Amino acid sequence: MAKIRYHPLIIRLRQKIPHVWVNRLKHLPTAVLANLVYGWPSRKLLVVGVTGTKGKTTTAVFLHHLLEKSGLKTGLISTIAAKIGEKEIDTGFHVTAPDHFPLQALLAQMVKRGLEYVVLEVTSHGLEQYRFWGINFSGGIITNVAEDHLDYHGTWKKYLLAKAKLFAKTQFAVLNVEDRSYPYLKDMVKGKIITYGRTEGDLNLKNCPFNLPLKDDFNKLNLLAAIATAQLLGVDKINIQRALLDLSLPVGRMEVIQKEPLVVVDFAHTPQSLAVVLASLRRAVKPHGRLIAVFGCAGERDPGRRKMGKLAAELADITVITAEDPRTEGVKKISGEIAFWAKKGGAKEASQEQVTREMKQVFLRIDDREKAIEKALELVEVGDVVGIFGKGHEQSMCFGRIEYPWSDQKAVKKILQKKRV
């Protein structure tokens, strides 16, 4: 794998240029050129965009499954992968939305393969950087808008406005009526609005006519959004119910690696998503069992995420703080900030040698992610639950400016195999 290096002077110069000028002078012309080169492929497709702070990948995968199983020729471009018929294409190590040329190339391939629909995961960065310029979205879904990416957008309102760009010309919008974004979005979006929620909305968990094959409410909400959209696109109830029979969560989303003791890998990398998955996993802990959480926070990203230490201290019994794409900030600095918040949450720090199977509301710091996972699995007993968070489907970890191959799933399986020998 090629190692990507940037000269420090280039990095410092780039940091001084306002995002808006980079977007207008670099990203917009690139977007125009990409559309011209590939012949505006999205004009030959019905494109549905899915955005939100958390749950957008899962919702996109669910919608693609419902449409494809209903016989519609549908492609998918998500954080995890792009799907063109039977073909699956890795969209990159840390890609949330493909860059301008790769995105148009994927859409062109879909047109060539005779696809008619595309489910496209859409990010606030991608919208601001004109990566989706030239795509007239027929419809859009928004899962939720929590405070995130404020290092880039500045404020929650600006972050919301970035996401709202998805709905500039849509024929329909599927909105979470219980999310704080709804009062703003309902007046911004174009086209018909369909709402969903736990207890409110046109489609909710109380009036849903389908048997939802999921345990937690969070992913049930994602599925409701996908179902509402499928219905808007003309999929009937019989086809939806049939598609639900073999529905599964995407890779790295509450992915069970071992059933007993339960070991789960999840992409949760924000305070909001971590709170949701920890609460869900807590319900799986058996009497006298413990919940063990392993996670870090990415460098050069919203430092507010490091408050996850407090959440983990309050919701988990043992927290193992480790590396997660430290980039140029370094593991120790980031771990120290997470530890500060863990103490605020009432947890006490212990060393690897001090921590025992009986301890609760403690945290330890292990910089090496593989060793951190190994320690968590060493402590686990029957009845316990281990959650490993922050990487999910990703296949690399960034130190400095270099991406190194990494997979939580592979690391866990290797360690468990060693334990069995």
Written description of the protein model:
- This protein is of the alpha/beta class and 421 residues long.
- It folds into two domains: 15-244, UDP-N-acetylmuramoyl-L-alanine:D-glutamate ligase (3-Layer(aba) Sandwich); 255-420, Protein-Tyrosine Phosphatase, Chain A (Alpha-Beta Complex), CATH 3.90.190.20.
- 38% of the residues lie in helices and 18% in strands.
- The protein has helices at 8-16, 19-38, 56-69, 100-112, 124-128, 150-153, 156-164, 182-185, 217-232, 237-244, 271-282, 308-315, 331-344, 369-379, 408-420, and strands at 46-51, 74-77, 81-84, 87-90, 117-121, 139-142, 172-176, 192-197, 203-204, 255-258, 262-266, 291-295, 318-321, 348-349, 362-365, 385-389, 396-399, 402-405.
- The strands form three sheets. A nine-stranded mixed β-sheet has the order 4-3-2-5-1-6-7-8-9, with helices on both faces. Strands 10-11-16-12-13-15-14 form a seven-stranded mixed β-sheet, with helices on both faces.
- β17 and β18 form a beta hairpin.
- α2 (19-38) packs parallel to α4 (100-112) and α3 (56-69) crosses α10.
- The longest helix is centred in the N-terminal third of the chain and has 20 residues, at 19-38.
